[in-house]
Amino acid sequence: xxxxxxxxxxxxxxxANGISANEPSLAGSTDVYSVAFEPNTFCxxxxxxxxETVKKLIELGEDVNRKSLGMTPAHFAARYNQPExxxxxxENGANLKKRSDKGYTAKRYAEMSNATQAxxxxxxxxxx
Length: 128
What we know:
Blueprint lengths: L1 H15 L24 H8 L2 H9 L13 H7 L3 H9 L14 H7 L3 H12 L1
Helix pairs in contact: 2-3, 2-4, 4-5, 4-6, 5-7, 6-7
């Protein structure tokens, strides 16, 4: 019984500290890793509609298809109806057909969010 309680306690501590199977091995390390529960800086700028920051990050080499919280930057731009940013992402190689971890495309996020301007940008880009 004590072993079971200790094992469950250890598991709970690992979960509470955000240890992930995707993180590097902790053997011989004193670093503590945590799981992200908010989007990366690039996607935060997209959500806020901060076009200048998005431009700067792209110029600095930000990957326009890298997922954050299971969604690409285009998914965030579509969901938060950011047509200008969505155009910028598309011009820089954003893949509109890429699916989120939930299986949705940028077009579907725009539809679900009633993001009419973003949906128009996506539909125009897919015609080309």
